[in-house]
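> @MW can you paste both from yesterday?
MW: sure, first one:
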Amino acid sequence: MALTITEECINCDVCEPQCPNEAISMGEDYYVIDPGRCTECVGHHDEPQCKVVCPVECIELHPQWHEGQEALMAKYYRLTKSAA
């Protein structure tokens, strides 16, 4: 699954630089996560770093973007290969 940021986001700017996939950016009203780039930090870290640093706990699983561990790892390989 990809992650999503809820409207409780306070735009504190701490999550964006933590994302190894550059999936987090400023949206119209608050930060958003691109589900096409979010791997929940699979391949990079043991847990999603954006969730670790979020002071208001507004990052949760995206309800419409279901991916298993294998799909997240495949996305990680695709993203890191294209970045190389």
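MW: second:
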Amino acid sequence: MIVRIMGEGQVEVAEGDIDVLNSLDSELEAAIEIDDEAQFRTKLHALLDKVRQIGKPLPDDSLEPSELILPPADASIDEVRGMLGDSGLIPG
């Protein structure tokens, strides 16, 4: 799966790692639902850090279509709330 972190570029994440990302995504959604800014910030950074850790960076000149677009680390809770789909940021 090709993932873009806005403002950072693209990484390739193995299909086997999607479950871990879905778990972190659920935690992020829960923080958004209760409108907890501190918890939101912690969960967003945890999700992005995990994508950076497990993802294989694509070259800057790569033009692969992104299957998933994640917000930047400095995104607001309202910005991320607007990006959420029926299944969170990461489709199940």
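> thanks! The longest strand covers residues 2-5.
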